[in-house]
Amino acid sequence: MKIPRVGLGTFRLKGRDLNISLKSALKVGFRHIDTAQIYDNEGEIGKFLKQAQIPRQDLFLTTKVWTNHLSKEDLIPSLQESLERLQTSYVDLTLIHWPSPKNQVPLKETLTELLRAKNKGMTKAIGVSNFTTEQLREAVDLIGKEHILTNQIEIHPFLQNRKVSRLCQELGIQVTAYMPLAYGEVIQSKEISYIAKKHKLTNAEVSLSWLLDQGFVVIPSSTNEDHLRSNFNTGVGILDEEDQKIISELEKNYRIANPDFSPQWD
User: Fold this and answer.
1) What DSSP line would sit under 237-257, residue for residue?
2) pLDDT digits (tens, 9 = 90+) for 57-67
3) Cα–Cα distance between 110 and 132 in angstroms, integer?
4) Which of 34, 70, 89, 97 is least surrounded by Cβ atoms within 10 Å, i.e. has the fewest?
5) Catalytic (active site) residue 183
6) All residues at 6 or more sequence positions from 34 whose CB lies less than 8 Å from its CB, including other chains
7) What domains are defined for the chain?
8) What angle do CA 144, 4, 242 make, to 5 degrees?
9) Which residues pair with 64 in a beta bridge?
10) Local confidence band at 1 (pLDDT 50, 70, 90 cut-offs)
11) Exactly one of 39, 178, 183, 194 is catalytic; which is it?
12) Alpha helix (H) residue ranges in the chain
């Protein structure tokens, strides 16, 4: 199973902004929508997609189970609530949003329930998010790499997360890069502006092309139709060796998503 290479991130999008983003994204060709229980927008997304009348089989929907629903008692009921909010009988991909803080819920318990949800037809595939190399190896030992479709992690030019992404690729687990534009920091970068001018691209296109060249899935977020069109149509194989070297030197371990319950990062 493959995840569509470019998806629409919906973190922090609600109300009018969410509707504008969804309307524009579907118009330019997006069919991969990424949400989560904690985003508190599954209901709005479900309502919008129902009204849009796009055949369900043409959509790829991802949601993520929040940390307070990782137990045997809570996971499947919480996922059922997500399905009801999204107005669908299944999602294409369900992720553990964050590893259980302080390992309060054993990973084996959560993964067992996710597999049960998959077997019940509630989700077509399962995966993880924000997992370190140690946690990813544990997950693989518990259920096998063939059952883990992706590890969704923060990756952009200023946080390249090489150790985790390298392990994912060795295991054949897809990498999904969230915050690929570093919340606008990419737009301000002089080095990326140089590369963009050289190839007649936008700064966002440079960052997304760099990620796509590595085989990663990207889920940028925007409410601007022109930006969404540009994101969706970003090309691959454009950047040369000089560009790659410039971007590799931008790594500064600049992590945006770093709550107090984060794991010990690699």
Assistant:
1) S---HHHHHHHHTT-----S-
2) 999 999 999 99
3) 16
4) 89
5) no
6) 7, 8, 9, 10, 62, 178, 219
7) 8-184+216-233 (3.20.20.100)
8) 95
9) 95
10) confident
11) 39
12) 15-28, 42-52, 75-86, 107-119, 133-143, 162-171, 185-188, 190-199, 203-213, 225-232, 241-248
